[in-house]
Amino acid sequence: MNIRIFENEEDLNATGAGLIASLLQTKPRAVLGLATGSSPVGIYKQLINLYQKGLVSFAQASSFNLDEYVGLPVEHQESYRSFMNEQLFHHIDIDLAKTHVPNGQATDLDQECAMYEQRLDDRGPVDLQLLGIGHNGHIGFNEPGNELTGRTHVVDLKEETRKANARFFASIDEVPAQAITMGVGTILKAKQILLIARGEEKAEIIREAFMGPITTQCPASLLQCHPNVVVLLDRAAGRLV
Ligand code: GLP
Asked: What does UniProt list as catalytic (predicted)?
């Protein structure tokens, strides 16, 4: 586990974007595992910047997103497909047909999960998986509990997660109750994992996840089992490690 703490936002974002850019330079056909939430946004901005300067190309790359809300129309501003289009895909040269986000509007959600997992098996493994972390230690939308699911599946979102994500919606009632998420096993298959966290509000969960016991009550703690994890933190999020 390589934990790095940064004094300023620019350096954190540049380091994260630099890792992704060097992967693409050595392996143009890389499979990227992408994430939503506020944590990766600065890294996406830096990547767009590098692309505009001609320093990186995504033309041959493909991507798989971690998760998507169930029942939210794709064109809804808060769907993770819209988020990815706006924050990254529409500003770079990636072939949209090679960008994968689970379909949260599928009529048969279990079948959609099985197909997503199959596509990952066929086109993966993911070379680098970008991750944020929820306040309760969730990764993707794998919520804490007595057990975790390995493969891509439908999950009921915890009230605390819906509350945390309500800031992006007009009210908490609009936050979907379910999501499709890669499983923890799916995530752990990535060759490298890059987790980003910022702010005092993440300090305690970062300590639990990386200094505490490996437990399903903190899904991010399972990352301790992975041989190649890089954690980029700002000073506040890294205060307790
Ligand atoms: C959501 C996403 C997670 C993300 C988490 C943290 O629940 N499904 O993938 O890590 O939010 O979000 P933020 O980065 O905004 O703190």
From this structure: 67 (proton acceptor), 136 (for ring-opening step), 138 (proton acceptor), 143 (for ring-opening step)
**What is the greatest pairwise CA distance in the chain?**
48
133-161: per-residue pLDDT in tens? 999 999 999 999 999 999 999 999 989 88
Q: Give the residue numbers annotated as catalytic, written as ranges.
A: 67, 136, 138, 143
Q: Is 67 in the pocket of ligand 1 (CB under 6 A)?
A: yes
234: confidence class by pLDDT, cuts 50, 70, 90: very high
State how beta strands 178-181 and 153-156 pair: antiparallel
- Domain CATH number, residue 114: 3.40.50.1360
Structure token pair of residue 98: 């090679």
Q: Is 28 helix (H, G, I), strand (E, B) or coil?
A: coil
- Residue 42 Cα to ligand 1 midpoint, Å, equals 14
Segments forming the whole domain that contains residue 130 = 2-154+181-234
Query: Phi and psi for 139 in degrees, rounded to 5?
Result: -125, 140
Q: How many domains are there within the chain? A: 1
- For the ranges 29-43, 81-95, 119-133, 160-174, the lowest mean pLDDT is seen at 160-174
Alpha carbon 125 to chain centroid, angstroms: 15
Q: For residue 167, is it within any domain?
A: no
Residue 170 in any domain: the answer is no
